[in-house]
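Researcher: I'm preparing a figure for a lab meeting and need a structural model of a single chain. I don't have an experimental structure, so a prediction will have to do for now. The sequence is pasted below. Please return the structure as tokens so I can convert it later.
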Amino acid sequence: MRILREFGIGAACLGCYYLVRRLVWNERGRSRAARNADRVVAAEERLGLRIEPAVQQAALRHRRLVDMLNVGYAVGNLTLSAGWLIVLHRNRSPAFIRERRAAVAAYAGALPVFLAFPTAPPRSRDDQVDTLLDRGIDLQHRWLVRLYNPIAAMPSHHVAFAVVTGLGMARYARNPLARAFGIVYPAAVSLVVVATGNHYTADVIAGAALGAAARVATR
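Model: Understood. Here is the structure written out token by token.
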């Protein structure tokens, strides 16, 4: 029964995510997302935070590095965050419930923003590169685009999960190397999402704040 409850929680989270996607992924929503992306960029320029094109251009000088970053963005973050919860669950760790609650809080906390403020990612703009498309993987393909919300850049779910998972590993992991990895993990994910053109600096900041708030709220 315990494992069925966890699957039920996961299914409810995904259901809410796809409901939001259904509500915003239309012509009007895409237009709003493009305008909101312009607003994010303008705000970053006023605040001196507009560093994404420079970071990406630096990464693009090293093609193998970009390939590694693409893999990290596409599968690494989700695999590690889910894997951490699976390890805690299998070990019957007392920390599991809190870590799962923090992950759910971070996941759910972004959904109202995705609905109210849909935002197109940097890779959709003329001054940045879609590094996955550059390698022949089109995230806008009619099959792939059904699997995620393409206009949910703000806040970064990736960074929120990285903060939740990284801080959890730093505190509860048994292996010292795993604890050390947890400390640097959020910064690594932040670099990945910016260099691959999937998130703005503002998204990273908002995602980190969401992850931290989720941990505090479920303490």
